[in-house]
Design brief:
Elements lengths: L19 E13 L3 E8 L2 E8 L5 H6 L5 E10 L14 E12 L16 H6 L1 H4 L3 H23 L3 E2 L17 E3 L7 E3 L5 H9 L4 E9 L12 E10 L3 H19 L3 E2 L6 E3 H7 L13 E3 L12 H8 L3 E7 L7 H13 L6 E7 L3 E4 L8 H11 L6 E7 L1 H18 L7 E2 L1 E5 L4 E3 L6 E3 L26 E6 L2 E8 L4 H10 L4 H7 L1 H7 L6 E4 L3 H9 L29 H6 L9
Parallel strand pairs: 3-5, 6-9, 11-18, 12-19
Antiparallel strand pairs: 1-2, 1-4, 2-3, 4-5, 7-8, 9-10, 10-24, 13-14, 14-17, 15-16, 15-17, 19-22, 20-21, 22-23, 23-24
Helix pairs in contact: 4-6, 4-15, 5-14, 13-14
């Protein structure tokens, strides 16, 4: 190949026996047997076991070299004996007898081992990310990421999409998350914004007459970190299509997702045709618009039960009389669970900030009744009504939550997940996709009580546009949709509003007058005024797709150089202070808090 290697560390086989070869890589592991030194040499492609006898004049030198030293080895391929074969290695049938070696790169003392996947603190791992990336598990995750992105590009081209790149320096948007701002040297006092997404640009591409666009797009949002969200930047498969309806977008994305997940995972897909669940149904049945459909537990509405005369659970009845709701979930066949199981769920709910979960188990002795702390408050008839509503059976347990709608939805969504995990109901070898559809166009802000956009402000409302009743904005549904897999939102999308007059009307409901819309969305509103096609799209998150395929729970495990939870790059010391000269060039002055 070249002066450093004739082969890589993952390709030598029994067919190469007796060959004189050269390998280069890192010392992954050493085993000193006294008369023999075994050395595992690692590169990007794999590991090859090398061996040197203690009679060799280089034995003591190699014996002293620390792990992760970069060396070149010249040697001869020899066959391993039957009792020393290593079936876990591609090169496990052979080893290399070392003839000579050369040190190519020395190493300081390691802050963390590379040959093991032992857990280390996030601070160490991110500060020495270049070492962390040498470790097998995360190295394979990054390789997977590359292969998935390459496959997606190929599939998008097959589906008739063209890849275009949109600007990184753009204008700030009043909607969505907090922008990252970039000061302009040539335009003092003005700022660019890094794009939260190429939303406006991809719509402008459609207005420009292109039919199908995609991009593996970098996006920037100044948000707090979560396990499934990076605090600074992330990548998404951004796509847009002209002359389409909602179903056309679904067809393309479903085909792509099925191909990607079947190509890179052996797990089965629960539903080949992804179910469509309305937003309102999702909130009632699952308490969230990100339901994990691997979980069979469904939330049930029980408010009316607590208006019955024969139900004596006065605490809940009083709350219901004041406008609160009661919903609950059924834990199947739990009659033999110990009291500690139920008390543990109740305590967990309180730890989550709820007032707890009332519960009882349905039993049948002389008659149907409730066994447990609140079972005595329900008559046989009222329990039968609960069973009818929820399809509960004798031996099942009921967990009940009462309160404001959003509070009940939140705790039961979490309880649904908690109880399913406790009862081991979730099939870990399955991907369960679904679409959440029919989002409300507007919602009422909890704090200000003002009407605001609930999703994407550029979405097309449903119904007859010419007869749209704008006097009841909270009843307007939009052609907005999310795709969810295993409880993780992969993307939001929408059919776009391409009619300027309608856009002005909808923005006015959210408090934007015509002047402000023209100012904040000048490029968009101007372009739509020159003949815009109906269009729509979506943007699945690349990082979250890789997370699911790699079986990881944290997005940093599939990102090459992530920031920590405080949006800091510990390896490159970013963000960092800048010199006064740089600030002066940008017409900026830092005002320090006292």
């Amino acid at each position: 190949m070249n002066k450093y290697r004739t082969h890589n560390c993952g390709e030598l086989k029994i067919k190469d026996k007796n060959k004189r070869i050269s390998l280069s890589g890192w010392i992954n592991k050493k085993r000193d047997h006294g008369n023999l030194l075994f050395l595992d040499l690692r590169d990007h492609y794999g590991i090859t076991q090398c061996v040197i006898e203690n009679t060799h004049n280089k034995f003591k030198e190699l014996e002293k070299l620390p792990l992760e030293t970069v060396i070149k080895i010249d040697g001869e391929v020899i066959q391993r004996t039957k009792d020393t074969l290593n079936k876990e290695l591609d090169t496990g049938e052979i080893e290399v007898s070392i003839i000579s070696y050369e040190t190519l790169g020395t190493t300081k003392e390691l802050p963390m081992p590379v040959f093991s996947d032992q857990e280390y603190s996030e601070e160490i791992r991110l500060k020495y990310r270049f070492l962390d990336l040498r470790r097998k598990k995360i190295h394979q995750n990054i390789i997977l990421r590359s292969k998935v992105i390459s496959f997606i590009r190929s599939e998008m081209e097959k589906l008739g999409f063209l890849e275009f790149q949109t600007p990184i320096l753009t204008s700030s948007s009043p909607e969505g998350a907090r922008d990252f701002l970039v000061p302009s040297r040539l335009n003092p006092g003005k700022f660019y914004a890094l794009p939260q997404a190429p939303q406006q640009f991809k719509q402008l591409i459609m207005v420009s007459g292109f039919d199908r666009y995609f991009q593996i797009a970098p996006c920037f949002r100044d948000e707090d970190a979560r396990a499934d969200r990076s605090p600074g930047e992330f990548y998404q498969l951004d796509l847009e299509m002209s002359f389409v309806e909602q179903e056309d977008v679904f067809e393309v994305v479903e085909k792509l997702m099925k191909n990607v997940f079947k190509k890179f995972s052996h797990k089965k897909i629960l539903n080949e045709k992804f179910p469509k669940i309305t937003y309102s149904d999702a909130m009632i049945k699952y308490g969230t618009d990100k339901p994990d459909l691997r979980n069979p537990i469904i939330i049930n509405e029980f408010t009316e039960i607590f208006k019955r005369e024969d139900v004596k659970f006065e605490i809940f009845k009083k709350l219901v009389s004041k406008g609160n709701i009661v919903r609950g979930i059924i834990a199947k066949n739990t009659k033999d669970k110990p009291r500690s199981f139920f008390d543990g769920i109740d305590k967990w709910a309180k730890d989550e900030g709820a007032s707890g979960l009332a519960y009882f188990t349905i039993v049948e002795e002389d008659e149907i009744k409730g066994k447990g702390p609140v079972g005595k408050f329900f008559t046989p008839d009222s329990i039968k009504e609960i069973m009818k509503i929820s399809k509960a059976e004798v031996g099942d347990s009921i967990f009940l939550a009462c309160g404001k709608k959003n509070e009940v939805e939140n705790i039961l969504s979490l309880a649904r997940e908690k109880i399913a995990n406790e009862l081991k109901l979730i099939d870990q070898d399955t991907f369960a996709f679904c679409w959440i559809v029919d989002y409300p166009m507007f919602e009422e802000d909890d704090k200000t009580k003002k009407i605001v956009f609930s999703h994407n402000p550029f979405s097309m409302p449903q119904g007859n546009i010419k007869k749209l009743d704008l006097s009841k904005p909270l009843e307007i549904k939009a052609y907005q949709y999310d795709i969810v897999c295993n409880g993780i939102e992969l993307s939001s999308g929408a059919i776009r509003n391409h009619i300027p007059e309608l856009m002005y009307k909808l923005f006015s409901i959210a408090g934007y007058d015509k002047k402000l819309v023209d100012e904040k969305f000048s490029g968009m509103i101007n372009a739509l005024s020159y003949g815009a096609p109906p269009h729509g799209g979506i943007a699945p998150g690349i990082d979250r797709i890789i997370m699911l395929l790699a079986g990881e729970k944290n997005i940093r495990e599939v990102t090459m150089f992530p920031m920590n939870q405080n949006a800091q790059d510990l390896m490159m010391n970013a963000p960092s202070e800048v010199k006064d000269e740089q600030l002066k060039e940008l017409n900026l002055l830092i005002k320090k808090n006292k």
